[in-house]
Amino acid sequence: MSAARPLHAVETRPERRTRWTDSELMREHFPEPRWAVPGLLSEGLNLLAGAPKLGKSWLSLGLGAAIANGDLALNAIEVERGPVLYCALEDTGRRLQRRRRQMLAGGGRTAPLLTLETACPTMTNGGDAVIVDWLADNPAARLVIIDTFEKMRGATLPGASAYAADYAAASRFKTIADTYGVPFLLIHHVRKQGAEDWQDLVSGTNGLTGAADATLVLKRSRGSADGVLYVTGRDVEEAEYAMSFDPQNGAWTKLDGPAADYELRDTRADLMRIIRDHPGLKPAQLAEALHANPATVRKTLARMADQGQVRKTPSGEYYPPEPSGNASGTPPLSHLSLSHSTPR
């Protein structure tokens, strides 16, 4: 990428109206949001988090190449072709070339409208100007990807709280995204501790998710899918997508149908085994035993109960379909033998 123009990013932003009277606002015509990937990545700031080595970089690079060529994103979603900037800040040129060659070996094609960058200053040290410079040279830009957010977030103001620091760091990207009407995708990590609400998995404080227009979390699936992509945001409907990963060409594919359908296939068998061996457990205990998403376990149990595969008591405990006699001898959860249920 060429060196940034000497003007600071703030001085090069196009004008954007921010004030109306109520009657003026009602008469105003606003264009529909620009989508990098319809239904998934809209204009504004998008935050994608996932565990290390799960395939976030393969996912984001694949999205960038598909958009730059106008190919199907995730082998399933039609997109509009346009320039994409992908800042692979944890890669070298050699590693990035090897990754792209692996992707192309699977039948892909080079993407002339995809700009690949492996070094960029932080946002508080001129990185914002570099991004604005590229956007000025590519007025039809469709997407900017920062891999990873932590590499480019910049310095924290002295004395700022963790929440304020996270919110300010994310807002530096959001301001540019909003001004230019271009979707930004920040690649980030999840925290080590689990969480019942998948949005709470994002590393850092709620300042990050609060500043972002949309939050996406890629998680490993326990079912027949390789992963589940959770999405929620201001312009995007909350959804869960089952995902399949091809390690030969590094390609993620969105599978048809609800993600829960793919998770249930293995989960049902595991639940039946535990309920038969230890009748009387509640959904939270069963989810803990399986190291599974509590919401998925609750949905699975409800379906199994509706189909007569398990029996639910008024107090929310689950038993095999036939009365199992005295359940008072159920051992505590910590004594369950579940070694083969450890997630991958």
TrEMBL record:
Q: Which residues form the HTH marR-type domain?
A: 267-315
Q: Which Pfam families match?
A: AAA_25, MarR
Give me the ranges of the annotated region Disordered. 307-344
Q: Which residues form the signal peptide?
A: none
Give the Gene Ontology MF terms in alphabetical order: DNA-binding transcription factor activity
Mind telling me which InterPro entries this protein's record contains? HTH_MarR-typ (IPR000835), P-loop_NTPase (IPR027417), WH-like_DNA-bd_sf (IPR036388), WH_DNA-bd_sf (IPR036390)
Q: Which intervals of the chain form a coiled coil?
A: none
| Composition bias, Low complexity | 330-344
For this entry, the protein name equals MarR family protein
What taxonomic ancestry is recorded?
A: Bacteria, Bacillati, Actinomycetota, Actinomycetes, Pseudonocardiales
